[in-house]
Design goal:
By secondary structure, the chain is α/β, with parallel strands linked by helices. The chain is built from 8 helices and 15 strands.
Length: 260
């Protein structure tokens, strides 16, 4: 039997993980937490064998929480991420597993197939070395490089697709998801607009409203409404309008494109 702690700042995320754990005969959830600081104290006190850990949390994110654990307290770690281009590549080459939201019970069980034998065979030193390797790769991934080509994982037509960030024309927030526009197709990913903006920082993304980011490389026509807001026509055919609060920001960006 493995004692499990779940750390996720979204209640729905914690509920899903708890329900999947309860369906397994060898997992016992001993705690679930919505913030890293409270979770850290509980992990130190209860020392679970398995930890499901969300990456994007404030003020103490999942990576910082993992760093704060003593080697002797380090459980088998499964990182949970909604939208992290750089983490995906690091997870693929490191023995620490990950779950990409949204995931189903089948994907959850595949993770357990990797975790169970690893936990039984690996010692504290090995798990600490694997975690250190993963964190190093993540930190390297967050540093901009002229050669980097960020990729995004998103769903379309019932299948997951890997998208080149340079192909993204626009991203719009849709509750707990974002809609990613590539040409005439709309892809979906569980994320926030702020996380998407960070993942696409190699592109000239401009926020034109609280819920919309536009890749200015794909703007082919600009018009104005009677109120003075900007209407942007994208290469793939989509048309979006800036909000009043972002009107000045759009105007400032467009002014940099003028020929003196």
């Amino acid at each position: 039997m493995m004692d499990v702690i779940i750390v996720d700042d979204e209640q729905a995320g914690r509920r899903t993980l708890r329900e999947y754990c309860e369906a397994e005969g060898d997992l016992h959830v001993v705690g679930e937490f919505g913030d890293g600081a409270t979770a850290l104290a509980a992990i130190r006190a209860r020392q679970p064998q398995l930890l499901f850990l969300d990456i994007q949390m404030d003020p103490l994110n999942g990576l910082d929480l993992a760093r704060a654990l003593e080697p002797s307290q380090l459980p088998s770690l499964v990182f949970v991420t909604a939208y992290d281009t750089y983490a995906l590549e690091a997870f693929e080459v490191c023995a620490v597993d990950y779950l990409l939201k949204p995931f189903d019970q089948e994907r959850f069980r595949k993770t357990l197939e990797r975790v169970r034998p690893r936990h039984a065979k690996s010692g504290v030193d090995e798990r600490q070395a694997l975690l250190a390797s993963l964190l190093t790769q993540l930190e390297r991934g967050t540093r901009p490089s002229v050669e980097e080509r960020p990729r995004l994982l998103a769903e379309f037509g019932g299948h997951l697709h890997v998208l080149d960030a340079a192909q993204v024309e626009m991203i719009e927030a849709d509750r707990n998801y974002v809609v990613i526009r590539v040409g005439k197709d709309n892809f979906h990913a569980r994320s926030t607009l702020s996380q998407a903006e960070l993942a696409l920082r190699t592109q000239p993304m401009l926020r034109i409203s609280r819920s919309c980011l536009v890749n200015m490389n794909y703007v082919k026509e600009v018009n104005r409404t009677l109120r003075g807001d900007f209407i942007l026509v994208l290469a793939g055919g989509a048309t979006v309008t800036s909000s009043e609060g972002f009107r000045g920001k759009v105007k400032e960006y467009l002014s940099t494109l003028r020929i003196a």
